[in-house]
Amino acid sequence: MKRFVYINDESYQNDYCDNRISNTKYTLLNFLPKNLWEQFRRFMNQYFLLIACLQLWSLITPVNPASTWGPLIFIFAVSATKEAWDDYNRYISDKQANEKEVWIVKNGTRKHIQAQDIRVGNIVWIRENEEVPCDLVLIGTSDSQGICHVETAALDGEIDLKTRVIPSTCVGLDCEQLHKIKGVIECPNPDKDIRRLDANIRLFPPFIDNDICPLTISNTLLQSCYLRNTEWACGVAVYTGNETKLGMSRGVPEPKLTAMDAMIDKLTGAIFLFQIAVVLVLGSAGNVWKDTEARKQWYVKYDDDEPWYQICVIPLRFELLCSIMIPISIKVSLDFVKSLYAKFIDWDEEMYDHETDTPAHAANTAISEDLGQVEYILTDKTGTLTENKMIFRRCCIGGTFYGNESGDALRDVELLNAVANSSPHVIKFLTVMTLCNTVIPIKSSSGAILYKAQSQDEDALVNAASNLHMVLVNKNGNNAEIHFNGRVVQYEILDILEFTSDRKRMSVVVLDCESGKIFLLSKGADEAIIPCAYSGQRIKTFVDAVDKYAQLGLRTLCLGWRELETEEYLEWSRSFKEANSALVDREWKVAEVCQKLEHSLEILGVSAIEDRLQVGVPETIEILRQSGINFWMLTGDKQSTAIQIALLCNLISSEPKGQLLYINGRTEDEVVRSLERVLLTMRITTSEPKELAFVVDGCALEIILSRYNEAFTELAVLSKTAICCRVTPSQKAQLVKLLKSCDYRTLAIGDGGNDVRMIQQADIGVGISGREGLQAARAADYSIGKFRFLKRLILVHGRYSYNRTAFLSQYSFYKSFFSFLSGIAGTSLFNSVSLMAYNVFYTSIPVLTTVLDKDLSEKTVMQNPEILLYCQAGRLLNPSTFAGWFGRSLYHALVVFLITIHAYANEKSEMEELSMVALSGSICLQAFVVTLEMNSLTFVQFLAIWGNFMAFYIINFFISSIPSAGMYTIMFRLCRQLTYWVTLLLISGVGMGPVLALKYFRYTYKPSAINILQKAERSFGPMYTLVNLESQLRSDMENTNISFSTTPVKNKASVYEPLLSDSPISSRRTLAASSFDIFQPAQSRNTSSYPRNIKAN
Questions:
Q1: pTM over 0.85
Q2: Any binding-site annotation on 979?
């Protein structure tokens, strides 16, 4: 589908939407129903609504409906208020953008209107430093060459200025003609691709004789860009409002479900099933008791002729009583603490990058605990592991190597002499370096020339050529001016054959204005340039140069050139223009035409550019690998360069400690044989402590992912490290998806626009605010300034978040199980106010202080990264640990109930009095439990726990002084009774005694690695790592004959720390044999003491 935009013609302007921007989710009319619909989409909210509605039936409700409706309305009101506030802020932002004043051309004159009133077809006038209000096709600028510069940081995060140029059909039009211009633009329907526009423009006479001119993205000014270094520019509005490319790109990303959230949902479902079982059993028992024993009691009266639904009354009462077992406050509590986790990341000064003035930022506040369960990290190379500061180091020109001795070709005397003597090969090489790019030279106020480049490689090449006296002085439109050894050389750029990830090369066609000759200048990857060499050229030297430089970890580019005959160029130019005018499959057609010209090149040489590793990268990768995290490096660089960088940053180990396996091949048979060999090697050597890794290139990967996905999945599970070279952005995303399909938690980290798909596909996306702009950082869940901060993000913030959330979620269920205090009549022990206050106030505030709890200091965690295995294996939240909390809650419920009943068996007490004793005992137990479970009890935590306990008495003393409250004088009478205080002591002692004994036994005789480290911290002695800590403590434990291990092993676990193999996320699906017969079934093998992948064991 396509649209036709008639320029400056009001009769067609109402066919499309106006320029009003709207990013709001709600309106005043639909806010309440839409928000409620979104909240009630969750099963838990539907469940609570059902319970609240049942409580409105007075016949079955054992408590006041306010005990459920109050918290439910409060929680929904909090969520709705947050949504309304966020939406109001979006409305204010939209209003400011919509009411901004802009210039348009109407009836031949310029006039002011609001941005929201712009219509498709209007001519919009933009002044310097103004924001572009909608998507425009550029038709005029203040520059005589028809170019302008725009800043696209708000659109794609790239900070370098980009050049935009008017289409050739508009060249030479003055301001008066631009006011009266008429024509039509044929363009596709709105889409979100900010890097592509396949359109055509045709001006009506008298401006031009109906000649069709192709339009590309370089002829556009997109919404939210800023005009820079240009006095004015004007363009035709083609997409407006929410139909602009930026508007189409907006949208709410799909929410990510953490492993812990998934586990909580499963446990909630299990509790619901348990509730149903309890309701059926006790409801049936209640009905039997009613029909047998109850009718015999003189104080119980039942009608003989009861309606049919009476049989459901007692079961429904039990359902209402048991409903509190699923805590209504858990969602709000988790949302609150997760927001604080995100703020801790934002506030962390140790993750602040002073070099770029960039703090860490958590854009997604809901997945912090997933950071502690990361199992695979997939990382980009350039700009992520490296600095992305390109420095021209060496080159090979015409078979001669420069810079080998000094390590800096720019200081190589031999090269400097060749430049001074105007060596033909060197001149050609420098010319390609200078012209084959999209660099913009800008003169500063001091007269110095600065270069603005979209690629750091191009910037390095142009600056290197400038240092060798080949200076790009000016580039106006299609004209380029070069100064070389005091001589001025003029070139006209006829065509640009743009770089794409498929072609892996870029070319320009230039006209030497002095000689009148036409040349094709090309640069690109070695596999894209060297095969295009003319027949008979000796290319072995260049191939050897590429390999040599790659082994040094340098980035290589091959440069070539060819003189074109005029007739050949003119014929090709017509095909190129025709391909550029296509609205369907334009990119494919252009690539096909380009290939017809890019052949028979004279290979001039190879450039080698250094991209140094960032500070702290090797140490960060080493520590994260010790923590059990597997690394995959996905890069567009050639294989040898990637391998060298991987060695330098500790991603792989050299022989004999490590072994690298290669998956290569150009044909399917070659790839299959290579994959078979690597997979069999992996299977055979699994039991060896040797570190195995595999490397695969993009060509082989394409074949594997399309046909042998199952075999590659098995390889991914067996391998701890992988290097994938020459991969495209889509292949990066495919690899992330493949690992996720194996049920692994993945983290993808990158810094450029080509990493966005990978980042969004991963469970956790981390963007680095780098030199390639902010595109990756904006698409990510977390953004950091440097790769080394990833270590702290995972080990400190991720681990603490997991530990705290695991305790908070299980404790929320634990405190709710106290509702299981009732006889078979379905009567509640607690009154409605007490139930509501118990859940919302008495027990929720203390546990929220877990956001400050630290089981180990940050220093200890960083020194012992192996303890992250506890989080990865889900050892703090799984069915086993939940069963432990469930058992504790039932025990404590029985303790409170039985001791209270027996203590007051002979007392003449009211029901409310007995209820208050039980409630006091419950809250006292809660305070002891939270205090005991805190690892680092700070003053704030102590005040929150025990201050809240004291607040319980203050509040109830106040309520007891109100005659109409239903609890008049109860608290005063209880506190004067010795029985009350003895009961509380008994409840605390009997309830906490076994818990303390079990905790002491575990800590003393069955310590985990974390317990050992805690003991070392609290002894104020020297801090040990897990390796030497075992030997240090073994001597202290010899007398007790207790064996222990500081690493989590398979057959050793405590009651509350289940086996790694029993963890719900540690078990993985068994991979079947490969789908094609050349792969043999995996051989039986011994379990490694150093498992290559903990999840596979």
A1: no
A2: no
